[in-house]
Write a sequence for this structure.
DNA sequence: AAAATTAATTAAACGGTGTTTAATAAAGCA
DNA sequence: TGCTTTATTAAACACCGTTTAATTAATTTT
């Protein structure tokens, strides 16, 4: 059965090469400039081959967005050393925003673009497990905050969504270039400044 | 000079017809399904004619997004009758979110999509005046709140951005279908519930 | 080893996109 | 009327995602 195994590996290898090329081009020139034909060119295969390894373009970008979640989770590892739940929540916010600002195209793919989420909707696995996992971390951190006496009078699920929305709102306005409405002198630092205001608010809750 | 005037009017009229067709198709089937050829078909002209009235597709969608801002400003008119600045701020939030939920495609175009903002960047008028105007309204309402003794210890510009980000975050996560991570029983009402949590927070500030 | 079968890969096409160009039709003016 | 300007279009260009049928390569069977 060694032959079948090797063929399996070969097949897997080309799949990985397609994905690597997609990632390279995507990080290099953005998602819109990354076409099936570009990817095929880059690995020196014909465009058609890609459809033997991926159902369609969305599936490729869904796979790429999974890598983004791994990357984000990696960055979140340091949270293990933050005992105070409120401090942990704030640190989560900082890491989240840093990730978005350092990897805007990846963040865009994960939380703004239609492509990967459409793939989730249009296939069997009708749940966005990557996003669900990340949201769970946030939810449990906020649960810890509540158990520690914070956020009295607030409803956990809605508050969790609100807090996520706040940081997502800031970075997505920045990524989609809606931040030029703020005063010129504040423009460069507005996301960082906004986060600081947010921390002040969290302290008061 | 009557002839020149009439030609002017005719030219303006076709421009309006193109815009009306673009709007119709855009509201009917979304922006991605609205192609130059679709628009041309709809007004029974050839595709080429559109380029005598608009520089490119982005210019059309920029014009459309302007209509969206008019619509939003219209909805904001009722704020004139809300004297209490904090109540006015909350009402602004409600109206903003209602607008986004009732006109998701238009909101998408105004605050999420790349198209219209790219047009702003790639032409002479290097300022996003529609967004700037809306942000000004928010800024001055928040200034009124500060003058009325709210939001002590907060910096106005960053807080304004933060508050905008919060509501934008909620609706943009909803529009871009990232809300399925919340508990199923909360899913239908999560944006409304999140806004209520936000109001509780504003009351505490 | 040769033939038959299966798998991997590609060339070509389909129907779409935004945009540009050169030719045509229409309108206004002399 | 003919001349000039304007409005409009047909056709092409260079892309796009995707599917099909044909081709090449590899494997199995005879």
């Amino acid at each position: 059965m060694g032959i079948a195994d090797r063929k399996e590996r070969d097949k897997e290898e080309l799949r990985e090469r397609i994905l690597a090329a997609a990632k390279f081009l995507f990080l290099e020139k953005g998602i819109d400039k990354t076409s099936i034909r570009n990817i095929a060119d880059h690995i020196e295969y014909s465009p058609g081959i890609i459809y033997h390894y991926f159902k369609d373009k969305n599936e490729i970008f869904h796979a790429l967005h999974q890598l983004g979640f791994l990357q984000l989770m990696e960055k979140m590892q340091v949270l293990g050393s933050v005992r105070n739940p409120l401090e942990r929540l704030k640190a989560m916010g900082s890491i989240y925003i840093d990730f978005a600002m350092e990897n805007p195209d990846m963040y865009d793919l994960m939380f703004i673009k239609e492509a990967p989420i459409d793939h989730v909707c249009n296939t069997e696995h009708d749940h966005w497990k990557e996003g669900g996992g990340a949201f769970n971390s946030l939810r449990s951190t906020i649960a810890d905050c509540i158990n520690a006496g914070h956020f009295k009078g607030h409803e956990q699920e809605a508050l969790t969504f609100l807090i996520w929305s706040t940081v997502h709102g800031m970075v997505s306005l920045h990524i989609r270039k809606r931040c030029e409405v703020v005063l010129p002198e504040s423009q460069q630092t507005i996301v960082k400044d906004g986060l600081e205001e947010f921390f002040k608010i969290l302290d008061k809750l």
User: Anything to note?
Assistant: Residues 3, 7, 35-37, 47-48, 51, 56-57 of chain A lie near DNA strand D (CB under 10 Å from a C1'). The domain at 1-54 of chain A is CATH 1.10.10.60 (Arc Repressor Mutant, subunit A). Residues 2-29 of chain A form the longest helix (28 residues). Chain A has two domains: 1-54, 62-204.
